[in-house]
Amino acid sequence: MPVKKSHGLILVVGPTGSGKTTSLHAVLGHVNKPNKKIWTAEDPVEITQPGLQQVQVHPKIGFTFADAMRAFLRADPDIILIGEMRDKETASIGVEASLTGHLVLSTLHTNPAPETISCLLDLGLDPVNFFDALLGILAQRLMRTLCVDCKEPYKPEQKELDHLIDQCDRESFAELGVDADSVELYRAKGCTSCGGLGYRGRVGIHEFLLGTPKLQGLIYRNAGIEAIYEQPIADGMRTLKQDGIAKIFAGLSDYSQLLNVTAE
Question: E strand or H helix at 145, and its extent?
Answer without folding.
Answer: strand 134-146
